[in-house]
Amino acid sequence: MAADQSAPTALVLGGGAVEVIRSLQLAGIPTAVVSTPSDPSKHSTYARSIFTWDWSQELDKHDEALADRLVAWALTQPKAPVIFYSSDQALIFVSRHRDRLSRGFRFAIPDADLVEAMVDKGLFANLADRMSLPVPATKLISPEQAAAGVPDLSDLGYPLIIKPERRDRSWRDIKDTDEIKVKALVVESAERLREMWPTVATLGHTLVAQQYVLGAESEIESYHVYADETGEIIAEFTGKKIRTYPVSCGFTTALAITDVPDVLNMGRKLTEQLDLRGIAKFDFKRSPDGELLLFEINARTSLWNHPGARAGVNIPAVVYADLTGRPRPVMAAHPRPVTWVHPKDILAARASGESMRSWAWFALRSQAKAFWNWRDPGPFLGMAISRARSGDFT
């Protein structure tokens, strides 16, 4: 859909912005981006790049000077732009500088304390305990405890997972035995814990040890929601991972938009319980007995917004409408089945034993594809050129 250039601009902050741009493009919303230097979203013909910014820097680098720079740009626009944030760093930046940014922008964001708790896994563990959220058994390990020696985690049972309070550059230097970066480390036994402890203990962060919920990554399901300033749920859908890379504790490479009643009901219940406002994604894993266990909440836009929009629930579009006083677009009461695929899914499919013929047919039939759009090939080509130059094809 052609963008209405007389409408306020939607400004997307953070890495991985291209899938958010796709959802805004489908609604005909003019879009700009402040992406990372390596993010291919800046090559999109549907989004003008204001400037690039390294969102992976330490949080104190995203300071008042950056906020003032953005506000100065916003004040040159005919109408106040709408901010969307597509990474945790961008979310925290907007939350911590919300008063300053509100001088030039419009945005929807949860309460500041709730934002901090959703981004920091240590704070989230405390929030979950305080509010009796349905999370797996969890223990926090302070840097001092980590330095004192290998902790006794036998009460969590094995296997378990270890993850940092926040994934930053130091965590990205941690690799598993296959030398592949992962979201969390799976620890199969006390012996394995002793082997890896000298490495993870030096990170200097609070570590989160959590009971591992048995089952494939395809048992991970999610609830996606937008609640307006009164707390009313305006748009929602559910989703399910198909594959990740790496296969265990990896990043999503294929997913499906679903319409699953118990996930909807659990998501609605938690949205109300947390008194949440704005956009959020609740991640659950279904245990072998069918119970939904909550892993994390992300209060930001994400790659799921693109397939969600193609399924009939364009969450960024309805947020934009509310913030700009425009009529809300119609949201499907029951989203259409849609699958989304990332180029790296070919690696995930191969690792899981799927034939290349079967994978090619799946990818061809997927209604949403990461990076690729026939009318906007720039992000895909930019990604391919960047990886070719770096030699990173994994």
Q: Can you give a write-up of this model?
A:
This protein has helices spanning 18-26, 64-74, 88-96, 98-101, 112-119, 121-131, 143-148, 169-172, 190-200, 261-273, 305-310, 315-324, 345-351, 356-365, 378-390; strands spanning 10-13, 31-34, 47-49, 82-85, 138-141, 160-164, 185-187, 207-211, 220-227, 233-245, 251-258, 278-286, 292-298, 338-341, 368-369. The chain is globular, with a radius of gyration of 21 Å. It is of the alpha/beta class and 394 residues long. Strand 12 (278-286) and strand 13 form a beta hairpin. Mean pLDDT is 91; it is low at 176-180. The strands form three sheets. The protein has a seven-stranded mixed sheet with strand order 13-12-9-10-11-14-15. The chain has a four-stranded parallel sheet with strand order 3-2-1-4. The chain has a four-stranded antiparallel sheet with strand order 5-8-6-7. Helix 3 (88-96) packs antiparallel against helix 5 (112-119) and helix 5 packs across helix 6. The chain has 15 helices and 15 strands. The protein has three domains: 10-109, Rossmann fold (3-Layer(aba) Sandwich); 137-211, ATP-grasp fold, A domain (Dna Ligase, domain 1, 2-Layer Sandwich), CATH 3.30.1490; 217-388, 2-Layer Sandwich (D-amino Acid Aminotransferase, Chain A, domain 1), CATH 3.30.470.20.
Distinctive features:
Rossmann fold; Dna Ligase, domain 1; D-amino Acid Aminotransferase, Chain A, domain 1; 3 domains; 394 residues; alpha/beta; 4-stranded parallel beta sheet; 15 strands; single chain; 7-stranded mixed beta sheet
